[in-house]
């Protein structure tokens, strides 16, 4: 067959000599014999275009013949012995006469003529349908679903949070994604990496507290990593003073907890008459676990009531936060953004920087929102890590004049809203850097509502989509 293809299709292998073609035809006939005897072999075809062809990519006669040859070889390899594919139709539509089985001592010349006639028979069919090479047996490419399933909300999502079981972040993860599989992480950055490495599907991390203010570490990590904010959840904080069973408040000499929890309970601890030292710990539930595991009878921990249940501690005082309206805002992070909508209240978070001197750029940014009646809910400045100080260019060359900042802004509008799109398009004209961190549904749950994982009146946002919100 190779000899027949070579004689009738000079553009297939122009540099092959006659002995090489004879050897190739003998190998091809041996391959077809093995296929008929139940030993399938892979069939490969190589198309080498003629360098002298002025239109190597066109569908000329040689390419049609090459397609016909590939189609015939693929049908021969895929069909079993005695199937209809062994007897292709002739140009007139009638099946040709069946060829006798070649003998083992056949020199291959007769087989070449028979195969050449068969190719001529299918050439007209292949010319009308050039895509006859079957691809159903090719391996299916991997998709995101093969690497890690992205279940719908309500099923078993894997949600990363910072802390140990009993932390407020775990309660926020349960409120955001009921019945999820919570994955504790010892650091905030580990939670980011868990989502990026497909260990977790989502991450729920705190960004600000109504009393303690912003959590700057997570704002810096939002800029460093490429995760998207897909939702928010606001969790009321209810602190308790925990100690080992049988311990009285008069015996305490030390109180351990997260630094913000200690600051949020400072006045209440003084009112209780406790003459104790304050010791900072990584997180509230971690402090409760440390007291329980080490049997510290002179130490109390400030944590949640759930932490007391998990680690076998008693509650010496309940609700010891100085302000009853103590709420922490968490953001939900995912690898892909969600599609913004306009049928419910949305919030959008952005970060931008400018390289121009003076405060007029920040004023222009705020004016872009004010002119379109878009309310800002937060503005936060963080030092520009790559260029923290700007130097003057006048007589005082070399002295620091201004600090450089990155600005984080949250505003109440969806990226599907034309007002938000126009505002960002205007902001992009006089900023050196602009990035949309996410456009997501607002948490409209009343702060006085229960915060358990089983009672969330705010439905979670729709699953992430591959369509990213516009950034300008």
Description:
The structure is a single chain. Among the domains are: 156-237 and 326-336, 3-Layer(aba) Sandwich (D-Maltodextrin-Binding Protein, domain 2); 239-323, Periplasmic binding protein-like II (D-Maltodextrin-Binding Protein, domain 2, 3-Layer(aba) Sandwich); 338-445, Alpha-Beta Plaits. With 472 residues, the protein is α+β, with helices and mostly antiparallel strands. The strands form four sheets. Strands 1, 2, 3, 4, 5 and 11 form a six-stranded mixed sheet that branches. Strands 8-7-9-6-10 form a five-stranded mixed sheet. It is built from 14 helices and 17 strands. It is globular and about 95 Å long. It has helices at residues 2-8, 18-36, 61-78, 109-128, 144-147, 168-176, 188-196, 216-224, 259-264, 266-271, 284-294, 305-311, 360-370, 418-429, and strands spanning 158-162, 181-185, 202-209, 213-214, 228-236, 240-243, 254-257, 277-280, 299-303, 314-318, 327-334, 346-353, 376-383, 389-391, 400-403, 405-411, 433-441. It is 31% helix and 21% strand. Mean pLDDT is 74; it is low at 1-21, 39-49, 51-60, 83-93, 95-106, 125-133, 142-154 and 449-472.
């Amino acid at each position: 067959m190779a000899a027949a293809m070579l004689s009738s299709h000079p553009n297939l292998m122009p540099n092959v000599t006659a002995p090489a073609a004879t050897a190739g035809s003998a190998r091809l006939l041996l391959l077809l014999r093995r296929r008929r005897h139940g030993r399938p072999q892979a069939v490969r075809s190589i198309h080498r275009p003629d360098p002298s062809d002025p239109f190597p990519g066109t569908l000329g006669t040689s390419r049609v013949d090459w397609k016909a040859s590939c189609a015939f070889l693929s049908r021969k390899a895929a069909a079993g012995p005695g199937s209809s594919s062994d007897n292709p139709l002739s140009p007139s539509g009638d099946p040709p006469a069946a060829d006798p089985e070649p003998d083992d001592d056949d020199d291959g010349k007769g087989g070449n003529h028979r195969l050449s006639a068969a190719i001529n028979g299918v050439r007209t069919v292949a010319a009308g349908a050039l895509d006859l090479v079957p691809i159903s047996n090719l391996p299916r490419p991997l998709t995101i679903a093969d690497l890690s399933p992205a279940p719908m909300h309500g099923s078993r999502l894997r949600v990363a949070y910072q802390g140990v079981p009993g932390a407020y972040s775990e309660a926020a993860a349960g409120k955001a994604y009921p019945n999820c599989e919570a994955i504790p992480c010892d650091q905030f950055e580990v939670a980011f990496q868990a989502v990026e490495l497909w260990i977790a599907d989502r991450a729920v991390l705190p960004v600000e507290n109504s009393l303690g203010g912003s959590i700057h570490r997570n704002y810096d990590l939002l800029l460093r990593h490429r995760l998207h904010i897909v939702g928010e959840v606001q969790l009321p904080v209810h602190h308790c003073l925990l100690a080992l069973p049988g311990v009285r408040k008069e015996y305490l000499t030390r109180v351990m907890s997260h630094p913000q929890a200690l600051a949020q309970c400072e006045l209440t601890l003084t009112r209780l008459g406790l003459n104790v030292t304050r010791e900072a710990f990584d997180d509230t539930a971690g402090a409760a676990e440390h007291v329980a595991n080490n049997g510290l009878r002179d130490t109390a921990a400030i944590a949640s009531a759930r932490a007391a249940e998990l680690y076998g501690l008693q509650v010496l005082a309940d609700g010891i936060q100085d302000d009853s309206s103590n709420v922490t805002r968490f953001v939900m992070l995912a690898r892909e953004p969600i599609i913004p909508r306009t049928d419910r209240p949305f919030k959008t978070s952005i970060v931008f920087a400018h390289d121009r001197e003076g405060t007029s750029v920040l004023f222009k940014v705020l004016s872009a929102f004010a002119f379109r009646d878009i309310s800002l809910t937060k503005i936060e400045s963080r030092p520009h890590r790559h260029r923290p100080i700007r130097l003057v260019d006048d007589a005082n060359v070399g002295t620091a004049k201004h600090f450089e900042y990155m600005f984080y802004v949250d505003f109440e509008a969806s990226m599907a809203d034309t007002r938000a799109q126009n505002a960002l398009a205007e902001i992009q004209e006089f900023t050196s850097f602009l990035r949309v961190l996410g456009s997501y549904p607002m948490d409209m749950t009343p702060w006085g509502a229960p915060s358990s994982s089983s009672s969330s009146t705010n439905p979670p946002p729709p699953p992430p989509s591959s369509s990213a919100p516009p950034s300008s």
